[in-house]
Amino acid sequence: MRNLNLDHVQTLIAIADLGTFGAAAQALHLAPPTISLHVKELESRMQAALFVRGRRQAELTSAGLALVQEGRRLLAASDDLIDLVRCRAAGGDGVVKIGVSAGVGGRLLPLMLDALGRRNPGVELKLEALGSAEAMLRLQASTLDIAIVASPQSAAVGIVQLPWRNDPVVALVPSIWDTPDLVTPDWLSTRRWASFAPGTQMHGLIAAWFGQAGFNPRPFFTLSHPGALTHLATANQSAVILPLEEVEEMRQAPGVNVRPLSPALMRPMAVAYRRLPTPGDAMAAVLAVLAEFAI
Known about the structure:
Layout: H1 6-18, H2 21-28, H3 32-46, H4 62-89, E1 94-100, H5 108-119, E2 123-129, H6 132-140, E3 146-150, E4 159-174, H7 185-188, E5 193-196, H8 201-212, E6 221-223, H9 226-234, E7 239-243, H10 244-247, E8 256-260, E9 266-274, H11 281-292
Helix pairs in contact: 1-2, 1-3, 1-4, 2-3
């Protein structure tokens, strides 16, 4: 039995993403007849129609949609295999795929990458920004090795979860505001404030912080990128609620003040990873570096 040709699968995905055979041909630097041939050979191999005929735009059949969805996984696995072989051929220790929550990155991630690069230069990382729920699913599907996730997460077979950090949450406030030493829900509920978008751990923590004090204010703005949020405070537009580690370096910055919350609010994070009989040296090295940044 003939195996799937991954070049043909890549052609199918390009057509699905770009909408037409012509656009796929241009993007892949292939002649239009070659694109048509790839589709014909795929349909012959699958014994199924992959596109609805007679439409100007390339519309997938249910069979075509299934092949595109699973084909993306095949291409990603192929890329991972190529990276692994190249890394080993160059004398490296291996490739580790890490999912990182949007709440971690501005300050910690570069520090961790620098520490790993200095101590274990043979380890190659593939980073993806993922929500915690998706990261846990990817770990179970073995398309991730390690994930930094909001804590707690539901227990999953074959996945280890270790408490990692418990960072205090603070308010970053424009210095032109008359701000108390401790920011309370009562004080902040009547002012403009911003933080992470709904569906994130931080959004839930902040809503509960206000709710326990009897308030339910709507945020002025929501984003899932800490760096973009801090600009709201530096531009005197809004207070911003973020973990301290994201604004640690702004304590002495002009134009803003960092204030603790009262009652105190903490943001717990965990390191989740696949339980393997014999974790490779590369994965062990990454876990060791993560452990050094635990608090």
